[in-house]
Design goal:
alpha+beta, 2 domains, 2 helices, 4 strands, elongated
């Protein structure tokens, strides 16, 4: 283990983390982790654990972690979408060159409905963006 441990540990959970204050300054030099808060990433909420009074340092460290976590999750989300585009291309190649009739019968309706739904949403969102640009240009 490294020479110096961080002051805080964030145990990732669904929608956030449990926050622990790390302490090695005890007689046995054991690592003690005292839970001090829960963080909900989706809502941006921090709730102290039990009767814990969060210090300014605690709040600053939690906010820094929350900001970094939100950025990381956003990056992962867009990475997932880029992978989905790759999967769509791989699926197209599979349909064209390898899929049997039975396999196509198994997936065609589900794929067509999903693609139709995605296309409808993408077209609507693109039209909205184009209208906003047009309105912004006309109002300038």
């Amino acid at each position: 283990m490294g020479a110096e441990l961080p002051k805080y540990y964030f145990r990732i959970r669904d929608n956030g983390a449990a926050v622990f204050r790390v302490d090695t300054e005890n007689r046995q030099r054991r690592i003690e982790m005292d839970q001090i808060a829960f963080v909900n990433v989706n809502k941006g909420e921090v709730k102290p654990h039990g009767d814990t009074d969060l210090t300014d340092d605690d709040i600053a460290a939690i906010q820094q972690w929350l900001d970094q976590r939100v950025r990381l999750l956003a990056q992962r989300n867009i990475d997932d979408i880029h992978r989905a585009v790759d999967y769509m291309n791989i699926t197209t190649q599979w349909v064209q060159s390898k899929a049997s009739d039975a396999q196509l019968d198994d997936v065609t309706d589900a794929l067509l409905l999903a693609m139709h739904d995605l296309r409808s949403v993408l077209v609507r969102k693109k039209a909205d963006r184009m209208m906003q640009k047009t309105d912004a240009t006309e109002n300038s």
